[in-house]
Amino acid sequence: MATRDTTEPTNQSVVSTDEVVDWKTKLRYFLNSDFVRSSPYWGIPFILMGIAVYGGIGYNIAISFTDYSGLQPPSFSGLDLEMYRTALASEAFREAAINNFVLLVSFTSISLILGLFLAILLDHGIRYKNKVQTIYLLPMALSFVVTAQLWLWMFNPDSGVLTVIVTTFGFDPIDWLGNPRLALPAVIFALVWQFSGYAMVVYLAGLQSIPDDQFEAAKVDGASTIRTYLRIIVPQLKESSVSAAVVLMVFALKAFTFLYSLVGQYRPPNGTDILATLMVRQAFKFGKWAYGAAIATMLLLLALSVIAPYLAYQYRQGSL
Amino acid sequence: MSQSTSRSPIDVESLVENFNYRRVGKYALVVLFLGFFLVPLETGIMTALKTNSAIARSLPFAPPAGEGFTLSNLEYAFSQLTNSFVNSLLMAVPATLLNVLLASMAAYGLTMVSWRGQIAVFALFLVGVFVPYQAVLVPLSQFWNNMFPLAQMLEPLFAAIPFLQGGHSRLVPLTITHVAYGIPICTVLFRSYYKSLPNSLVEAAKIDGASITKIYRRIVLPLSLPMFGVVFIYQFTQIYNEFLFSFTLITGSNHPAAPVTLILPAIGSSTEGIDFGIRMSAAFLAALPTIILYVAFAEQFAKGLRTESG
């Protein structure tokens, strides 16, 4: 009773004053709102990040419409899509795009499968599980620059470990990175070595969220372990798969550092040129800034085509 | 019921047998993959400790024996990397600290204080995590070299500092760049932590009339100390390991401000090819800080990775 009595008049007063409040009161309300009060907290990082990421992207797109190259400052008169046309018509661009696609798909899927396998292997009744997991994940902590050196030595045709293995089985030594047809699979192999531990960690977290009684129920029904996993457990890991896949794909798009460090120069081993290496080479070696910017824009579109559906999916799930 | 209990002794026996085979197979696989993940590292370390003739003669993963053992490769690599270690730390430590602080503030403003449209703002942060850095490289070099040449402006100041050269001023724009591009991922990490915190404390403080700043300083900051550790370790590793920004802003591996990752791909190579003893020594030394951090804080690192994927 008492509450009703007090709320009604205040409601009325709010409504009535709303018509007469001057802009000063409105401004005071606005300045006291949580949005404004919290803005120094999220606003400063937001501006810094916004300028760097979105300002950078915008300026990059603007440059890609010019014909900026060399040392002259870019001129923004006469913008056109010439750089994009040149890129799409060039053999090198098409080759890099195909390599990028192969790298993206095979690296991601192999890492996911291996990661899932390792997660299942470690999921139940393994001793020292945490220590094993730490070692499987160790390559993740290393820089691309370091792992590139390690694998350069592993793939060395004179005395690398893989050469030792191949010759023990009676084959001739193989120049993995020197053979244009083997170089990309070799790079993918090394990247899988570095990142499958990541997929494993994501899957292990997913497996732990599945209640144990589902395993028990399947066991009571007489299903084999493999069948249990394939039919019952794996379908429930869809979310883990999606999020691991997105992060892995983004890693694949960033593989520039690995490829550059393998050889220490702009041109990666024959047959492994991807959009990222092509872009950096055109811009920073040849000074074709606008052309590099156009390739970078297309790389960005590629990345967005992977993340946009993912973010939309997350948003619909309410987990954003 | 009675049927199953009467049959159970036989079942258990066959199960145990079955189980043992399976167990052995399982552990064999675990060990096999331990080898898979460790062999490249082990080979690198063994090679780092060998003389050139031992590298040519022995198996790459075999430990050095007798005459073949040497520390000279490690010593040489260390002398080549000393300055760049300092550079890497001068850049990575302040960048990570700023990053962690700004990201925790952003996550606080985007999670614990509610206002309309914060999901949209957060989505902009989230997209920033996934943007390939190639898409901002040309503007980045334009900005720091032509539009706002901060390194040039600071050069006299750095030349006056003992132990540093004017060229070290390039570490300042590099650090700022790392802070700016590191904010998105760190914000995502902090946000997922803040969302998992119970809301009751903040609500109670609000009812008591605590301001937004007071809530952050008195409640959120102390509560998020463990997460500060996680994000710091994760982000320090990322920045220390990063190559592309250093490559763009500090051109050339012989620049006085070059960090470790920039120098490593050039060490030990000559016209005759690569001296793998030196190269592996350098790779091992370069990786050592991150390996130590990782082994000491493996759980935090894994946690950071798990939250990264949402």
UniProtKB/TrEMBL annotation, chain A:
Record-linked Gene3D superfamilies: MetI-like
GO cellular component: plasma membrane
Domain ABC transmembrane type-1: 97-312
One of the GO biological process terms: transmembrane transport
Residue stretches spanning the membrane: 41-62, 101-122, 134-154, 182-205, 241-263, 289-313
Record carries keyword Transmembrane: yes
Compartmental location: Cell membrane
Membrane-topology descriptor: Multi-pass membrane protein
InterPro entries: ABC_transporter_permease, MetI-like, MetI-like_sf
SUPFAM superfamilies: MetI-like
Pfam families membership: BPD_transp_1 (PF00528)
Keywords, in A-Z order: Cell membrane, Membrane, Transmembrane, Transmembrane helix, Transport
The family this protein is said to belong to: Belongs to the binding-protein-dependent transport system permease family.
Protein's name in the database: Sugar ABC transporter permease
TrEMBL record, chain B:
Domain of life: Archaea
SUPFAM superfamilies assigned to the protein according to its UniProt record, in alphabetical order: MetI-like (SSF161098)
Family matches, as InterPro entries: MetI-like, MetI-like_sf
Main location: membrane
Magnesium found in the keyword field: no
Compartments in which it is found: Cell membrane; Membrane
PROSITE patterns to which the protein is assigned, alphabetical: ABC_TM1
Keyword Plastid listed: no
CDD domains: TM_PBP2
Transmembrane spans: 27-49, 89-110, 122-144, 171-194, 215-237, 276-297
Secretion signal, residue range per the UniProt entry: none
Any GO CC annotation of this UniProt entry: plasma membrane
Keyword field: Membrane, Transmembrane, Transmembrane helix, Transport
Gene Ontology BP terms: transmembrane transport
Family annotation (PANTHER family): ABC TRANSPORTER PERMEASE PROTEIN (PTHR43879), GLUCOSE IMPORT SYSTEM PERMEASE PROTEIN GLCU (PTHR43879:SF1)
Family: Belongs to the binding-protein-dependent transport system permease family.
Record's protein name: Sugar ABC transporter permease
Organism: Natrialba taiwanensis DSM 12281
